[in-house]
Amino acid sequence: MKEGIDGTKTDRFLKSSSADSHPLVLDIDDFKGGFSFDALFGNLVNELLPSFQEEETDSLEGHGNIAGADALPNGNSRIPSDAGRGLSSPLFPEVDSLLSLFKNSCSQLVDIRKQIDGRLYDLKKEVGAQDSKHRKTLAELEKGVDGLFDSFARLDSRISSVGQTAAKIGDHLQSADAQRDTASQTIELIKYLMEFNGSPGDLMELSALFSDDSRVAEAASIAQKLRSFAEEDIGRQGVGMQSAVGNATASRGLEVAVANLQEYCNELENRLLARFDAASQRRELSTMAECAKILSQFNRGTSAMQHYVGLRPMFDVEVMNADTRLVIGDQGSQPSPSNVARGLSSLYKEITDTVRKEAATIMAVFPSPNDVMSILVQRVLEDRVPKLLEKLLVKPSLVNPPPMQEGGLLFYLRMLAVAYEKTQELARDLHGVGCGDLDVEGLTESLFIEHKDIYIEYEQASLRQLYKAKMEELRAENQQSSESTGSIGRSKGASITSTHQQISVTVVTEFVRWNEEAISRCTLFSSQPATVAANVKAVFTCLLDQVSQYITEGLERARDSLTEAAALRERFVLGTSVSRRVAAAAASAAEAAAAAGESSFRSFMVAVQRCGSSVAIVQQYFANSLSRLLLPVDGAHAASCEEMATAMSTAEGAAYKGLQQCIETVMAEVERLLSAEQKATDYRSPDDGIAPDHRPTNACTRVVAYLSRVLEAAFTALEGLNKQAFLSELGNRLHKGLLNHWQKFTFNPSGGLRLKRDITEYGEFVRSFNAPSVDEKFELLGIMANVFIVAPESLSTLFEGTPSIRKDAQRFIQLREDYKSAKLAARLSSLWTSSS
């Protein structure tokens, strides 16, 4: 309950509970608002409970001393029996009052509930009646709304019908008005047509309209309509002229009108063009725009556009001659591509700026500025630029090309590339300024079509010309060098190679640079992958031919040195029956031939090394620069790789032959050293009690020193499989040569030890070849050398672990000093027979 209500109720409850003569009265309004049952109950009993509590307190104070002794362990008091009997009043004296109060309250609450139930029933009944009435009203309203919608639909349909009728009437009225205007205009046109259909060439009797300068636009429009009508009628009548004589007469009449109209239109157009030119000189843009608008009725203004463009100062002859002087220079002088590039950049910038200024005027004057810009740019690309290119790009002859002193074919190609690149830039700039629907790129390409059609032939011819000139230059340098050192070099055998030109990696790099420049032009002149790939392949083939020819010729020249050295060796091969003086001279000549052979060997190894470097440069250039241009086209990359392999195979063949000659040269010198230095006593020293010599023989030392010195060039020049194959072949030849050499000597045990020392020295040297098969052969040689050291009776056990060398061992055993005295032939014969 609210506070005010609670207070009132409390007073009421106190008043009503103080005496039974005034029962408690509860009202329905007491239960409205924030009702609380606890508050209601409290207000009912709180008035009675305080008096009871006070009486209970007073009755317990007199018996307080009993609590100490009679307290129970659970805390409750135990009252003596006599005290209990002394209390005659009830423990809770207000019970009756509370029961009476509660009964009264319950009866009143029941009455209040009945009152509320009655009211709720009445309210439900009233609400039901109102709801039924409301539903009825809504149904009537819905019916009325439906009728209203139907009325609106009929009204809308009516309005639409009326509107359509009005529109039809308006269309008819508009059509009628248009027909009336057309009829009126037709009457006027017929009147004007009759004026033009007078005497041929008689324009004096025309209406004032056709001579009034203030009505030029209207006169031009009418004249164009008349001429169009007359020409159309003549065309129509011409089809059936043979079937109608009257029509022929009419046609002849209209022909007079057409002729007069044509004459008048020409005169009017010339008059307007003259006015346009005068306004153009005075820069009166408004007058120019007015004239251009009127002239647009004559052939859509084409004559005015062409007239305006044709009178631009940028197309004057003096201006074009100045273009030539700016780009090419004075007559008779040969310009450089860099100067031409600067000149073209300056000229094309000037042209672009001029066109941009003209565009501003054209936009302000002409009703169709895009068409005028198209004509202007077309005139630039068909008149001004071609006249300059015609003087700049003079196509040389492929049969008699210009000499390299004048730049050769390369000069023309560089000029073509510069002109093409700069003209493409001009086309892009003009397109940015505005050129209407003109195909600027196609028009620019057409300027160079005659040059691009056979461009690749000029590129190939230029590369061949450059190669030829470079070879002539190298030959001249070599000839000059030979003449300056020839008199000194001819006195020495080692100078055989001085007259031969060596391969130069710098020259091959220059070949590649030429090719790079040519490839850059290939990609400049075409953007189509197939065309680019075809041109790149053709240009790269030229490089392959050049490099292949150059290094092959270089290898062949190096081989010639080897051949000449071999000829010198053969020349000084003498028999055994010669005098000592002759033998000494021959030995000296042989030394010179050996020096020439060593020099030619080194020269060839240098040539091989430079050949490998050159091939590597070409391969790297192909991988880095050309592969990406060839891969987009199926088969182009593979075909170029195959061509590269084919081109290099010729050089590989020359290198292989030369390496074989190198081996021959080395082995010839080894055989000469062995023959000259090896003494019979080296392997059959006398048994004089002196300790045996464990040093290598002088011949072995000389051979190893020679091989170490000469093969240093091979170790540097060769690599990979080429080096392995060369050294393996040389090791096998050295093994075979030593075997044949030792077959000439007889060995005693101390000589066998000396031989074993030589074999060890040779084996240690060839171990640097990194050829396992060669190492194995020299190891077996060391084993076979034991046949000279062991006693005859031990020979049978010497080859038990290595039966593969038995055949060579038989030949070695025959070289023992005691072979005959110890009767080793018979003993070994029985041994080989039993073991086999």
From TrEMBL:
Residues 55-82 are annotated as: Disordered. This is Exocyst complex component Sec10. One of its GO terms (biological process) is Golgi to plasma membrane transport. Keywords: Coiled coil, Exocytosis, Transport. It comes from the Eukaryota. The keyword Protease does not apply. Residues 96-212 form the Exocyst complex component Sec10 N-terminal domain. PANTHER family: EXOCYST COMPLEX COMPONENT 5, SEC10. InterPro entries: Sec10-like, Sec10_HB, Sec10_N. Belongs to the SEC10 family. Residues 218-826 form the Exocyst complex component Sec10-like alpha-helical bundle domain. It comes from Escallonia herrerae. GO terms for cellular component: exocyst.
